[in-house]
Amino acid sequence: MADRATPPQQSVQVSESERFMKLKDAFISKYGLPPAFYARAPGRVNLIGEHIDYCGYAVLPMALEQDILAAVTPTQTKIIQLANTNPVYLDFNVHINKIHIDTAKPLWQYYFLCGFKGIQVELAEICAKCEHYIGTEGGGMDQSISFLAEKGTAKLIEFNPLRATKVKLPSGAVFVIANSCKEMNKAATAHFNTRVMECRLAAKILAKAKGLEWQKLLKLGDLHTELGVSLETMLSTVEQMLHPEPYSREEVCQRLGISQGELFSSILSQNTHNVTSFKLYQRAKHVYSEAGRVLQFKKVCDETPANALQLLGELMNQSHVSCRDMYECSCPELDQLVDICMQSGAVGSRLTGAGWGGCTVSMVPTDKLDSFLAKVQEVYYKADAQRAAMQTQSLFATQPGGGAAVYHEA
Ligand code: GLA
What we know:
The protein is α+β, with helices and mostly antiparallel strands. The chain has a domain at 9-172 and 402-409: Ribosomal Protein S5, domain 2, CATH 3.30.230. The chain is 42% helix and 19% strand. It has 15 helices and 14 strands. The chain has a four-stranded mixed β-sheet with strand order 1-14-2-3. It has a four-stranded antiparallel β-sheet with strand order 11-12-8-13. The chain is globular, with a radius of gyration of 22 Å. The chain starts with 8 loop residues before the first strand and ends with a strand. 41% of the residues are buried. Bound molecules: alpha-D-galactopyranose. Residues 46, 50-51, 53-54, 138-142, 353-354 line the site of alpha-D-galactopyranose (GLA).
């Protein structure tokens, strides 16, 4: 059930870990003193439930063993000094009263500064809010699994209030992450927020058509709660009340009875003011069907029928198709990689996270793992020089890892 939302304090024998030692040495050579403590946050992979957290629906991610490690020491000055062991990311110093986050140009240090700017409320929920300072209106999956993860299990994450429930993944398969090597910076482009706004507009238009108080309603999930019906009924409501042709700005305003000025000032985010057409039918269909797939995925994990792996694989494949065709958050590289993963022995494969680039997650029977990795390497990575150069960090199997923690040297 609901778990802690603050990182545990652990002690670590730094001299016994090569990774901690390297970080400590780099810290000392840069700042002339040892770190006071270390903090770790794991990576995450969403197994199922894409683009529905910000609509109010549960998602099903797990934390990875792979992580980010930071070494920290408080200082007497009001200057935040940031450095990265990856030389691509340059050192950065800023006075705490002069923090400026340029959302048009998201630099690595801004992610730290967003955290600093927002650190007054509870961590998991506040971290989701922190991300909004970078300009994307994400839902909170990443931050929640980072804090609430437990080694060995995925979690069903429900929102409002935030809750995490263990989901034990069936034995006999492993999850493999594969980076498409296509980058999509969701803070620098309007792709992500356009989808958030399309969901918001669909929720408002449906709410108004149903005679509800639509002004305050922001999420498709809240509309569902208000109506108190099943997800299947929500899907047929979308089919009956929305049309598949894109909605123009004029039509949206007319359906809501508002001016374009009001649309900009009280509904759309800043970086979506230029968007002129909205695919409300397709986006809402994705959200309600994907929310149902998350619940089915959990049910299969809980009940573990004999064909559990096949059922989970099918749900993952359906999720990818819906992301690709209805939500349009895939890209040719991700689609190609998913096909290759399926041909290489996966029982299910899908884009994971925001999409338009980034990674896929595939469920692979344990006894096929080696041949799967070899085939994907051959067909996707070795075929392209840039991908081949990134191959070692781009394709790996992972088990559910533990959550974020703060470490003190023993
Ligand atoms: C990004 C966001 C998450 C979630 C996913 C899509 O990772 O940060 O909150 O919306 O996209 O499922």
